[in-house]
Amino acid sequence: MTADWDHARAVADAVLYEGYLLYPYRATSSKNQSRWQFGVLSPIGASEAGIGEESTLSAQVLIASRGITMVTGVVRFLHLQHRGVERDLGDGRFEPVDELVSDAGCWLCWDEAVECEVPIDPLPVMSLPATLNISVAPTTEVELVPGGRLVRTRRPLRGRVDISADDDDGLLRLTIDVRNTAPPTGDKDEAIARSMIGTHLLLEVADGEFVSLLEPPDRAADAAARCRQHRCFPVLAGPSPHRDLMLASPIILYDHPEIAEQSQGALYDSTEIDEILTLRIMTMTDGEKAQARATDPRAAAIIDRCDSLSPEAMLDLHGVLRDPHAPAGLIPEIPDGVGWWDPTADAAVRPHSDAVLVNETRVARGSRVRLHPSRRADAQDVFYANKIARVTSVHEDVDGEQHIGVVLEEDPAADLHDWYGRYLYFAPDEVEPVVEGSSQWK
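Structure (tokenized):
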């Protein structure tokens, strides 16, 4: 397994467990009554019966072949595991209960999940189509605990993966269909127990490379537009600029997604910001934390990790710290090949110290400029014509357009506007630097 594969799997793991646990992690939380949110492939007919999701997902990706192209990969998903709790009555008899409490701990009835990974062995693209069957046997496991036992059960799973390839404008279009083939059920609990949860694909190509579907090269744009996806979102995986890995995710991602280096570990709660969620966890009472620990070992790990978080680690979660005394440059200062959506781009932008050149004069925060509104849509801008303003920030948007934030010098509330960030914005060609001592300003 290569370092690139490990890099991609780290993101795939985050996708697999997204939504697995939801803050405040307690079993009584209404959010945790329906935790399985992404990539659920239910048994046949569950969606139509209103007791589950659709049974299929489908991805189409493009490959630029360089020889005898081979494809390999894995289908990954979670399998629901119900944990029943039983009290020891003695004489080998046990009684099912909702909660078991002893001096050694507390256990609740809970739906856990275990990882399942079905390998796609190396396939020459020219040998396709191919079909791979998925079969997961039912299991029952018993764990003795003080005062009783935990009984973990998993229902059987059945599925199928169909892989085919077609030529498309000089490229290979690979189609992968993943289907849950379990027979219909009439019960919602039985449907999720027989579902493939968080389903996604991680694919690798040899003697070829995947084509970005988000930013295809011009020659592949039409073929990329013809690709169809159903309940998944394929993106280039692994570190940029490598193109040998593709992740078909049930949630929207960008090409070459990464786990933030500041992250201290998975929190599972979808869409939450690590810092905010960590602070919330730290404010939970001891009783609430005990209830969370009683649900799932992963919840217990979250509580323990947040309780032991160092001040330095907490500061890392707050964002990227920059030296305010570092020399300022012109914008953009983004490394070549880095898109605006990449966290590296955020780290390179410093609106309060970046600058632009206007008439060969460097304009940055603190510069004085005369305003010449010309193309903006705001009718009030005409009232600012020939006014002197103080520059507060310099920005560049995702289209590469530059914007200069200012406050009017004659505005008695200028300092207040600067304090809470209420600026007027103009393009560089709408401002004229004030050159101190020049006769034009006498």
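Confidence is low (pLDDT under 50) at residues 321-328, 437-442. Residues 3-264 form one domain.
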